[in-house]
Fold this sequence. Notes:
Blueprint: H1 17-20, E1 29-33, E2 43-47, H2 49-52, E3 70-72, E4 75-79, E5 87-90
Antiparallel strand pairs: 1-2, 3-4, 4-5
Amino acid sequence: MGFTEYFSAKGTDPMIKYGMKPPANAKEIFMGCGPVDSAVLKMGVFGFPEELFDQRWYPDCEEEIKRKAKSVRLYHAYYSTDGSEPIGFSKGSTIKTPYLG
């Protein structure tokens, strides 16, 4: 079993949204991240495109219950329609980013 890298970007790159979505024939994908000034991945998750690219609205509010990422396998994933459309994954379900509170 192998994989094909189809996208790589730094978080500081402008408008990565349009290049980030996987091709239509992608089955399982890997999404990873690492330190800003490094090419080394420190963590990542595997998932189906529909699990990781399920864009939803997460209100910008103080009520943490409304900012819960969806449960995917053994982690939580989010892809927001709000603001700069943050996307990510975490061990816990509460979303805490500079863009979502």
